[in-house]
Design a protein that fits this description.
By secondary structure, the protein is of the alpha/beta class. The chain has a single domain, classed as 2,3-Dihydroxybiphenyl 1,2-Dioxygenase, domain 1. The chain has helices at residues 15-24, 54-61, 83-96, and strands at residues 8-12, 28-29, 37-42, 47-53, 75-79, 99-106, 111-117, 123-129. β7 and β8 (123-129) form a beta hairpin. This is Glyoxalase.
Length: 132
């Protein structure tokens, strides 16, 4: 298997809130939101994350959707360029309405970061590694 592309499809309960949250964090919109989804391009390579209304996604994939407030369905890692940038992002996440799961901290020699959840509970690990 050699797919041309990979992207993520996640459930959201409120598309307006989701759009506002990721826009405030500076994520690049991937087209205009509509009644079913909002979408963003992430990182230098433009990784696509679609946020569908939960019922739309459930119907499309013919499967139950995990409640991201209770379980981790996937944890994306966002690469920071420095400890200071990671600290700054933690403040931006809180200001935009996200929840810090674990505050910025060192966790081993040369490793630093934190974990946050968006308003629907989707988890992100912000990670800085010296030399990366």
């Amino acid at each position: 298997m050699n797919p041309k592309m990979i992207w993520a499809n996640l459930a959201a309960s409120d598309l307006e809130r989701t759009t506002k949250f990721y826009t405030e964090l500076g994520f690049k919109p991937n087209g205009a939101p509509n009644a079913e989804l909002t979408s963003f391009l992430v990182g230098k390579n433009g990784f696509v994350i679609h946020f569908f209304l939960k019922d739309i996604l459930k119907n499309n994939i013919k499967s139950e959707i995990a409640n991201a407030q209770d379980v981790t369905e996937v944890c994306f890692t966002l690469s920071a360029e420095s400890k200071d940038q990671a600290d700054h992002w933690a403040k931006e996440v809180e200001k935009a309405g996200g929840k810090i799961i674990s505050p910025p901290e060192e966790f081993g020699k040369g490793y630093y970061g934190f974990v946050f959840a968006d308003p629907d509970g989707h988890k992100f690990n912000v990670f800085y590694m010296e030399g990366l």
